[in-house]
Automatic annotation (TrEMBL):
<dbReference type="Pfam" id="PF19290">
    <property type="entry name" value="PmbA_TldD_2nd"/>
</dbReference>
<protein>
    <submittedName>
        <fullName>Protein pmbA</fullName>
    </submittedName>
</protein>
<feature type="domain" description="Metalloprotease TldD/E C-terminal">
    <location>
        <begin position="237"/>
        <end position="445"/>
    </location>
</feature>
<dbReference type="GO" id="GO:0005829">
    <property type="term" value="C:cytosol"/>
</dbReference>
<dbReference type="InterPro" id="IPR036059">
    <property type="entry name" value="TldD/PmbA_sf"/>
</dbReference>
<dbReference type="GO" id="GO:0008237">
    <property type="term" value="F:metallopeptidase activity"/>
</dbReference>
<dbReference type="InterPro" id="IPR002510">
    <property type="entry name" value="Metalloprtase-TldD/E_N"/>
</dbReference>
<dbReference type="InterPro" id="IPR045569">
    <property type="entry name" value="Metalloprtase-TldD/E_C"/>
</dbReference>
<dbReference type="InterPro" id="IPR035068">
    <property type="entry name" value="TldD/PmbA_N"/>
</dbReference>
<comment type="similarity">
    <text>Belongs to the peptidase U62 family.</text>
</comment>
<dbReference type="InterPro" id="IPR045570">
    <property type="entry name" value="Metalloprtase-TldD/E_cen_dom"/>
</dbReference>
<dbReference type="InterPro" id="IPR047657">
    <property type="entry name" value="PmbA"/>
</dbReference>
<dbReference type="GO" id="GO:0006508">
    <property type="term" value="P:proteolysis"/>
</dbReference>
<dbReference type="Pfam" id="PF01523">
    <property type="entry name" value="PmbA_TldD_1st"/>
</dbReference>
<feature type="domain" description="Metalloprotease TldD/E N-terminal">
    <location>
        <begin position="32"/>
        <end position="95"/>
    </location>
</feature>
<feature type="domain" description="Metalloprotease TldD/E central">
    <location>
        <begin position="127"/>
        <end position="230"/>
    </location>
</feature>
<dbReference type="Pfam" id="PF19289">
    <property type="entry name" value="PmbA_TldD_3rd"/>
</dbReference>
């Protein structure tokens, strides 16, 4: 039996378990929802071209939530037998007796439930032999170690896994879909002058293993990134233009996601509180969400509450057009859920058209940030302060690597001071954006 047949049978078994749990729970609860994501796969890790570890995983927990008289109780079980499901439901019901009444608790609205699940081409199972997976990881290491300045590998890996997600609730919904994810990664250590060491990495990830980069490409990129960081210097403290490389720029948009998420808004703990319909980014700035991109890394037909996902304009000409609301947050705020329980789905930041070299020329003289460290973000005030590394750029050309600096500003100012977005798009993230150039930030060095 091939993997697709196995997964098809597993999907049926999980649907049966979810339906059984719903039937049992509804005998005592006013409403209920049941969900499980069963993940199966393996990871092969190598170090210095020898297999270091092999890990298999096959896990999934059936989560059951019941609602009685505006009281909520939750329990879970990894045992899908009828007896274990009954015990979990009893536990959830017992918990609900001791929780406080919450008028905002409950299922998402019936009218927002997904009606039919589209095939988004998310499932490309591939469970290669372990020897082959090890060869892939070793090939990445060998390529990286072929560079003279690379002295040691910090490990490479090949990961392959697939998952089946099933969700049902007492609205009569029972929906499911399968997905897969494969990746290759490599991390190496280089040595520069005065024996100073630097580390960097590269990776590739895809739903379909045939769309992964070659292991040699991963190893080459890991080596080249590491070598470029050798013999770094510090900067004189000052205020400079700053450009975030595309893979770092995704985190900048990630702060936007956190700030417009319902949980922070109804708790009044967001620097973008009451900013719906207001301009928070330059007038040319646009972000769209496309949950149904075929094969997309963050594509999903429905969210964790069974709400159907749909295309959305997040930022239109710099104006915030929507919050990201679960049903609970929506009721708290007297709004409509947006289908973001569990996260966002394929955000695309519109580019201003410059390639990477053109972005450097527009930066002219300033700091290119390729790594950020630390958690110096205050989501309430928007204050931003993080450790950084990258490159000093003069007259549009990279001059030397930079390390041990801190960049600081306020996210509200940072968003409004964005000058350009490159077309060197980072495609390995749920947020797809090019490099982002900011007018200026405080940079603390020597």
């Amino acid at each position: 039996m091939d993997v697709k047949q196995q997964v098809s049978q597993q999907r049926v078994r999980l649907e049966v378990a979810v339906r059984k749990a719903l039937d049992i729970a509804l005998a005592s609860a006013h409403a209920c929802e049941v969900a499980i994501t069963k993940s199966t796969g393996f990871s092969v890790t190598t170090r210095m071209c020898e297999v270091e570890s092999i890990e298999f995983n096959s896990d999934g927990v059936l989560g059951i939530t019941v609602y009685r008289d505006q009281r909520k109780g939750s329990a879970s079980t990894s045992d899908l037998s009828e007896k274990a499901i009954q015990q979990a439901i009893v536990a959830a019901l017992d918990i609900s007796r001791y929780t406080s009444e919450d008028p905002y608790a409950g299922l998402a609205p019936r009218e927002l439930m997904i009606q039919s699940v589209p095939d988004l081409h998310l499932f490309y199972p591939d469970m290669p032999k372990l020897d082959y997976a090890a060869q892939i990881a070793i090939a990445a290491e060998r390529k990286a170690l072929s560079y003279t300045k690379i002295k040691q590998s910090d490990g490479a890996s090949y990961d392959s896994r697939y998952a089946v997600k099933v969700y049902g609730n007492s609205h009569g919904l029972l929906a499911s879909y399968s997905s897969s994810r494969h990746s290759i990664s490599c991390c190496v250590i280089g040595q520069g002058k005065n024996n100073r060491m630097e580390r960097d990495y590269s990776y590739t990830v895809a739903r379909d293993c045939n769309e992964l980069w070659t292991p040699e490409t991963v190893g080459q990129q890991a080596a080249e990134k590491t070598i470029s960081r050798l013999d770094s210097k510090k900067l004189t403290t000052g205020k400079y233009p700053v450009m975030f490389s595309s893979d770092v720029a995704t985190s900048l948009i990630g702060h936007l996601i956190i700030a417009i998420s319902g949980v922070n808004l109804y708790r009044k703990s967001s620097f973008l509180l009451d900013c719906l319909g207001q301009q928070i980014l330059p007038k040319w700035f646009n972000i769209v969400e496309r949950p149904h991109v075929l094969g997309g890394l963050a594509s999903a037909p429905f969210d964790d509450e069974g709400i159907f996902t749909q295309d959305r304009q997040i930022i239109a000409d710099g104006i915030l057009t929507t919050y990201l609301l679960t049903s609970y947050a929506a009721r708290k705020m007297s709004m409509i859920p947006t289908g973001h329980a569990g996260g966002v789905h394929n955000w695309f930041v519109k580019s201003t058209g410059q390639n990477f070299e053109m972005m450097l020329r527009e930066l002219n003289t300033g700091l290119l940030v390729t790594e950020i460290m630390g958690q110096g973000i205050n989501v309430v005030t928007g204050d931003y302060s993080r450790g950084a590394a990258g490159f000093w750029v003069e007259n549009g050309e990279i001059k030397y690597p930079v390390s041990e600096v801190t960049i600081a500003s306020n996210l509200k100012d940072m968003f409004m001071n964005i000058v350009a977005v490159g077309k060197d798009t980072e495609v390995r993230s749920q947020v797809q954006t090019g490099s982002i150039l900011l007018e200026s930030m405080k940079v603390a060095g020597d």
